[in-house]
């Protein structure tokens, strides 16, 4: 779903929240939402849903969620606020990680959500080519 022009409209965010929630007993392990147009509030809703559902089910299933290149303003502050929310609401301090890999090395125990390149929020200038229309025979 990278560079698909996804935005922060309520219907789009609701579908992305559904995507990070479990499908039956299983969670997705990796989702690439980079290069879209998701703002800080949309990202907050997506991350909170992913983390809360994993905690509610006592799941240790990790998610690698790439949200880079969305043009999120003040990404460091957004990340710090999400960490504070997780610590206060879920009583877990190590839920989120900015590491590129999703390994559970020392310091990563209990991490449920990896946000690689989250602090890299410059919007890409790459334009997608429009789909070609197929004419009937």
What would your notes on this structure say?
The chain is an alpha/beta fold. 31% of the residues lie in helices and 8% in strands. The protein contains three helices and four strands. The chain has helices at residues 10-20, 40-56, 75-89; strands spanning 30-32, 63-66, 96-97, 113-114. The protein has a four-stranded parallel sheet. Helix 2 links the parallel strand 1 and strand 2 (63-66). Helix 2 (40-56) packs parallel to helix 3 (75-89). The model has no long low-confidence stretch (mean pLDDT 83).
Secondary-structure map with pairings?
Blueprint: H1 10-20, E1 30-32, H2 40-56, E2 63-66, H3 75-89, E3 96-97, E4 113-114
Parallel strand pairs: 1-2, 2-4, 3-4
Sheet of most strands: 4 strands, parallel
In total, how many beta strands? 4
* Portion in helices: 25-40%
Identify the overall geometry: globular
Per DSSP, what share of the residues sits in E-state strands of 2 or more residues? 5-15%
Spatial separation of the terminal alpha carbons: 32 Å
If strands are numbered along the chain, what order do they take across the biggest sheet?
1-2-4-3
């Amino acid at each position: 779903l990278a560079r698909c022009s996804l935005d922060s409209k309520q219907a789009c965010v609701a579908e992305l929240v559904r995507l990070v929630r479990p499908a039956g007993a299983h969670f997705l392990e990796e989702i690439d939402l980079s290069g879209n147009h998701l703002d800080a509030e949309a990202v907050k809703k997506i991350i909170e849903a992913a983390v809360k559902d994993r905690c509610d089910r006592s799941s240790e299933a990790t998610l690698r969620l790439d949200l880079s290149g969305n043009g999120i303003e003040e990404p460091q502050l957004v990340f710090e606020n999400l960490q504070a929310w997780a610590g206060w609401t879920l009583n877990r301090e190590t839920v989120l990680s900015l590491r590129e890999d999703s390994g559970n090395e020392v310091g990563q125990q209990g991490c449920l959500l990896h946000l690689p390149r989250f602090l890299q929020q410059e919007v890409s200038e790459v334009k997608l080519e429009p789909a070609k229309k197929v004419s009937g025979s």
